[in-house]
Write a structure and sequence with these properties.
homodimer; alpha/beta; Rossmann fold; 7-stranded mixed beta sheet; 3-stranded mixed beta sheet; 7 helices; 10 strands; globular; protease (chains A, B)
Amino acid sequence: MCAARSILLMSSSRLHGSNYLEHARGQLEELFRAKNVKTVLFVPYALPDHDKYTQLVRDALQPWGFKVEGLHTKPNHSLALTQAQAIFVGGGNTFVLLSKLYELQLIDLIRQLVLERGITYVGSSAGTNVATRSIHTTNDMPVAQPPTFDALNLVPFNINPHYLDAELNSQHKGETRDERLAEFVAYHKLPVLGLREGTSLSVQGDCAKLLGCRNAKLFKA
Amino acid sequence: MCAARSILLMSSSRLHGSNYLEHARGQLEELFRAKNVKTVLFVPYALPDHDKYTQLVRDALQPWGFKVEGLHTKPNHSLALTQAQAIFVGGGNTFVLLSKLYELQLIDLIRQLVLERGITYVGSSAGTNVATRSIHTTNDMPVAQPPTFDALNLVPFNINPHYLDAELNSQHKGETRDERLAEFVAYHKLPVLGLREGTSLSVQGDCAKLLGCRNAKLFKA
């Protein structure tokens, strides 16, 4: 039971044919307005250029009426998070992102703020991966090594963002996404939700709801 | 300088339209005959069913005149490796494979046998990843967590197996392989060789040679 929880986990920040975050505008507006969010604290660590990344998010959200600040510009990260109305953790490399959150010792704090204080959490792609129980089901290349693959555990299961079905006519012999997720399920005996691009998982309190116009795929033992 | 080294690193064990290992038959026969290898010790840990995996390799290599034994069937792994004429490390999940090699404490022994005693090493896919300096450039899902991403370091650089060019007309918004490898290069400032399916890197002593009918792609800072 977690009555305070208010989370939106996007598969991706972009959808083919639309601008950055545009496909999720309705989802974000509804969430932020319900929680009276005026300013979003952006966590840019999954990509190398934090200023540029924060500006990208600002350019998307500001016209919709939301102010965006970069966590990396704050002298005291913990204080900034504690005072935030909403946290948005952007995509990029999941291993780099989780490593940085551990390095800055922000994991326990963010978990506590979201689960106990009800601070709104929005994630996309890598930001969705780190919100789940672990990053074992990321698609990213392991360019950095975090101390553990355990993540924020804001939801007690795994998500595979950018989930896509196997191409039937592919001549490539690398594993398909389904084969990779089956490896995870066989190894951990735990479920994982394949979240297609353009869709999001909204979790308000203990009620989870799939948003967007495509279905998701649940893999379990 | 490493005069003893005799290594064949395959991008993949399968190529579209041909049977398991068939595309590399000439490469394997030439290598094994040059080194008078009659029996190959197979390391099956990258896939869950070790017996079945070893039989797959046996079915491929035996008709060509090479006996195959599974490392997992040996009561003393270190002794079996020390007495081996050639080691073949098969593909599957790179994280699972490297975790198992660390768990069995075989990393230092295999490195020593290959670099100092000249035991022939053959790897494909995950078996190629673990032969390089680290597994930071695997395509696999991180379903297991090894104590470190550092690997056998039989060659002092990284390889990306199953390398493939970006699909120009893709509507998928997940990163392309080139974007992922650029992330690695930006993070580590180290080179990585993208090895296309159907090709292999042969390293005899200090001489490396690309085998197969396609070129490779080198990414560097």
